[in-house]
Amino acid sequence: MNVLIKRNGPGSRHRLVLPAISSSNKCETVRILQYHKQSAAGRNFSGKITVRGRGAGNFRNLKLVDFRRLIWNVPGIVRGFIYDPKRSAQLALISYNNGLICYQLAMEGMKKGDIIECKMPYLSGAENSLIDNNINNNNNNINNTHNVGSTYPLISIPTGIWISVIESQPGKGGILCRSAGAFATIIKKDFKLGLAILLMRSGIYKGVPLNGLATIGQVSNVEHKNQVLGKAGVSRWNGIRPTVRGVAKKSR
């Protein structure tokens, strides 16, 4: 939940911020999984400003996030959570049994010490024939409470479960439902077309391939939308400069 800062200054009187990650759940930064990207400040390759109102801001070290889920059928343990300045959601540090580590988007309800895994994602030709035969997907029921953060092909996930980090094209990586609090619901599966019909939070329906991957659960940091910056300086920290309305400018 959001925290109201109890100060009398005009910049923080009505400010609402998210609570920091507790020291017991926070993990140390892995330097090989972070990088620094120089801000373009709204300029193109020739140095001309193409987007006004951008520039400055705090120094940011960004994290490398595994959206393609490249480690299959290997159990991993959640070592802790960390903040990424590029994203509204928190990241979870996953340590796998084969010695590899990576960052993934943390899901709501995920805890330190949880075991997650990514099942073999892409269906072979023999398995694709099962789709044409209208297989009963209830054989691979997934318990939503014990598998939050695990990744499965959409064909193995029962309808009605919240999912996120969804692949629109198999092998391309999860590109749908990645912001804080985002999720989609599987409404039905069309085995003839090989599509899963998803209900997005916006109310629209979207069809994605059944052999694509999706993660069980809702993306963490649900209260992010309720933040109140409180003062203009917070926007400057984020690299957003003041914007002048067009009607207030002198016509030329």
Contiguous low-pLDDT stretches (5 residues minimum) are: 123-146
Largest sheet: 6 strands, antiparallel
- Helix-and-strand structural type: mainly beta
Shape: globular
Strand content: 25-35%
Total number of beta strands: 16
What's the gist of this structure?
This protein is mainly beta and 252 residues long.
Describe this structure in words.
It is a single chain. The protein is mostly beta strands and 252 residues long. The protein has helices at 125-132, 232-237, and strands at residues 3-4, 16-17, 34-36, 61-63, 76-82, 91-96, 101-105, 115-116, 151-153, 162-164, 166-167, 174-176, 184-190, 195-200, 205-209, 213-216. A 6-stranded antiparallel β-sheet has the order 9-16-10-13-14-15, with no helix packed on it. A 4-stranded antiparallel β-sheet has the order 7-6-5-8, with no helix packed on it. A hairpin with a 4-residue loop joins strand 14 (195-200) and strand 15 (205-209).
